[in-house]
Amino acid sequence: MTIDSRRIATDLETNMNRQFFELVNNQSNILSSFESNIHGQLKTIQTTDNMKYSSMVDDIKRQGNESFHLLQQQIEENAEQVALLAFNQQPLVTGIIKFNDVKYSVGFNNLATFTNTGKIVCEKSGLYMITVSIISSTTASQFNIVLNSKMITGNRFVDGVQWHTGTSGMVLQLHTGDNIWVETDKVLSVSGRSYNSFSIIKIK
């Protein structure tokens, strides 16, 4: 082998070694980049899953808190005591009857309006039982239970005896702000003391 042949062989070997090392280095870089990308994707997936799980847990907690709050509110509303018993002490009544002698009241904060005007204002929505009883000596007359200016029921006194007893009872769904009262169609001569009564109680 001549000197030129040896030099060519040496250069060829050197070149092949360099290409081999470059190939190995490139493959190592590609593998490292691939591993880095895989790691990044796995981390992203894990972060996304954690966020979804955390969001799901937060939703469950929020729904649970809302349900508990609604249940607690319903229990408190059902446990509310709202009732009133009042009497009329005037011997003559006309128009709206004022039952201004309040014997018992719980859950009503605006009694002044009721005693001054005869109209009771619903402060808490619910199902109410209302009872009105009146004794009168005026015949051919009647009293009506009125809700928001609309007559709900009437009770008429007829001829026959000196004193007439009229009693009306009903159950109504009332809403906050509703006004309810008792009114007559003419002047009534009524028995005083505890014979003429108005009662209302929240039953649900």
Automatic annotation (TrEMBL):
Cleaved signal peptide residues: none
Pfam families: C1q
Coiled-coil positions: none
Record-linked InterPro entries: C1q_dom, Tumour_necrosis_fac-like_dom
Gene3D superfamilies tied to this protein: 2.60.120.40
Residues of the C1q domain: 95-197
Protein name: C1q domain-containing protein
Native organism: Mytilus coruscus (Sea mussel)
Organism classification: Eukaryota, Metazoa, Spiralia, Lophotrochozoa, Mollusca
